[in-house]
Amino acid sequence: MADSPLNKKALGHIRVLDLTRVLAGPWCAQNLADLGADVIKVERPGAGDDTRHWGPPYLQDAQGRDTTEAAYYLAANRNKRSITLDIASPEGQEIVRALARQSDVVLENYKVGQLKKYGLDYASLKQEKPDLVYCSITGFGQDGPYAQRAGYDFIIQGMGGFMSITGERDDLPGGGPQKAGVAISDLMTGMYATIAVLAALAHRDRTGEGQYIDMALLDVQVAMLANMNTNYLASGQAPRRWGNAHPNIVPYQTFPTADGHIIVAVGNDGQYRRFVEAGGRPELATDERFATNPMRVRHRDILVPILSDMVKTRTKQEWIDALEAAGVPCGPINNLDEVFENPQVRARGLRVDIPHPTGGNVKLVGSPMKMSATPPACSLPPPLLGQHTDEVLHGMLGLTQAEIEALRDKKVV
């Protein structure tokens, strides 16, 4: 997507000072950047965000050689400007304070209390800019008995209950707890943090008042269990793992085909009848053990193996064609090759290619937010380490080239 004029950027009037690294914080910052905010990513001199080195795979240049930019880093850092800065140094701390005075939002994900010793905590920066929106992201929040613990997504998925309801049934082969295939507590914390920042900015615009936002991965992981939480709170019974099956509906699960897997999501008895008729087994609809959903749930251990054998006789696409024609909800389980070749994904423009200074073009997934007046734009590639240090220090703070070089000699930038 081409860059939008300033008046087409929802957050074109907002500047974000991003002191975060890895995923939850950068994901929030990337959302804000996609919506037009000027995001300045502050990184350690010589090293940068940890995820720059989380490869392979790496971005490749025009000759097919690996660059130093890991694909993991590329996923969460487009549309930002990168500066390198040693915030442990007095000079670096003063630069952060100067940048914060010209920013609307500060994002950080340091350990609880770590920035206070540098004078870069909310209480300190609020003195510099009273209407500042300051968002801290940690594993467990700013208070409570676990506040000083480091928070890792995998651990949070287990501790927050997600893995207790994810994975195959304990009584089946491969049964047991399973984490998600992506770092969901990190990503969802980034999403919740985005919402909180936008709400705080709206409040500031009405009242002139800034505020502090305390985001915790554990809080988010617990909150996002949604109806599973309320199922437990209403019944007192902890939900169990059902793998790809449903506790209350049969069949509502995955099935292996001759060449892959499909999802069949039968929601009523009519859809079930059409499913087994499409499979050449109409007698399964009149069998009293399977005729109604309550009976199918009761006899799932008998019915599901029969249905599995039926589905294995055809390919994935043959089943999808037959079931769509019969009005039975279904879908494929695609690998990412198939995802990015899917005509709907292509039509929605989810893959974007952006020119990159070392990689020729970088292939990314664009923002899923479709907005008629202020569409998100993928205009800047994930920046090289420190790519914009001189630009920011000179353009925003008025430092001369000699002053910048003096800071570089002292390894402050």
TrEMBL record:
Cited Pfam families: CoA_transf_3
InterPro entries: CoA-transferase_III_domain, CoA-Trfase_fam_III, CoA-Trfase_III_dom3_sf, CoA-Trfase_III_dom_1_sf
Record keywords: Transferase
Identification of the protein by name: Formyl-CoA transferase
Species this protein is from: Noviherbaspirillum aridicola
